[in-house]
């Protein structure tokens, strides 16, 4: 989801254009096209309720990639959706569902979230764009994501094993020829496992794992011990798919700016916590003595400023979301 923090002049101009188109369409439909009819900000009347042009515009403006010329066709669909919503709301109120404790609680939670995010947005506005030198330095510091980027074909195994079995497997696995040999050995030993073959771009691999994977040659193994067993990956192939500095520039710039915004919000919340009088009570009293990670403390109120997108294929450019995944890893 694209945050309001990433709003730029071009996007603002597009939103204003969308709003103007939507207003013209809806005002005409509502009798504001001329003559003696007076323009109105009401887009539709639903029983005793009304839906405003502003409500339609607000939804249109939040549609990513929507062009001004598309607003006219979409505005009626949006309005019909709001009509359905209004009908449902009227019935809910009639049945007093708006007084249900769960509904009241959800409304209050949404209100708190909106206000907290508004504060985070305001704080993040102070973030400055990275310089060309900073973008280059970041590019050079992550060759596994850019200049030496590879696409990995892996055979992954999630193995359930006790301490004795883990020790035996860790000694045996490096000598196996491929994933089929490992699967056969596990079946013969009666060890439970799950396996899959995947092709992964580096930006979709946690950085901690990627730093080990880049050291491997085709045909080698990566074995990671877990409390309940082993996570194993066999590198079947690694095809070069470099990204030039020019191709990665925009994505790096967006990522670094996003990271600065997060840092500003995190620092702000940390300062607020330090100056506030906070007292944990009841069952949380004992937990209050445990130091809190400032980043975690800000997580619930910090906006999601990095967009979420599918993994990038091997190409000459990356978007900021793929770089974000490469840094934070998949959850």
From TrEMBL:
Residues 130-243 form the PpiC domain. Keywords: Isomerase, Signal. Residues 1-24 form the signal peptide. GO terms for molecular function: isomerase activity. It comes from the Bacteria. NCBIfam families: cis_trans_EpsD. This is EpsD family peptidyl-prolyl cis-trans isomerase. The lineage of its organism: Bacteria, Pseudomonadati, Pseudomonadota, Betaproteobacteria, Burkholderiales.
